[in-house]
Amino acid sequence: MTENTENSVLEHLRHIRNRIDQIADDMSDLKQRVSGIETSKVLVKREISHSDETDARQQVTLDKIIERIQRIEKRLELNG
């Protein structure tokens, strides 16, 4: 009976070891996927920042154009 018990314990330990190996593989895969998501997140933030910069430049240009139009209207004494 002792030999049978030892075999049963060894079988359980093998099963546990296999399961732990599988979990370790899954964790490795998850780490890679999270890393990919983080990289994508950084790229999206960079793109948003670039878009905000472009918007700000366009707003400055638009403000200058509006000022010029207002000066022209004032010189021509136009009420618009």
Describe it.
The protein is an all-alpha fold and 80 residues long. It is 92% helix and 0% strand. The protein is built from one helix and no strands. The chain has one helix at 2-75. The longest helix is centred in the middle third of the chain and has 74 residues, at 2-75. It starts with a helix and ends in a 5-residue tail after the last helix. 0% of the residues are buried. The model has no long low-confidence stretch (mean pLDDT 94).
What are the defining features of this structure?
single chain; 80 residues; mainly alpha; 92% helix
Major sheet size, sense and barrel closure: none
Please work out how many helical segments DSSP would assign: 1
**C-alpha end-to-end distance:** 104 Å
Structural class, by secondary structure, is mainly alpha
Shape category: rod-shaped
Mean pLDDT figure: 94
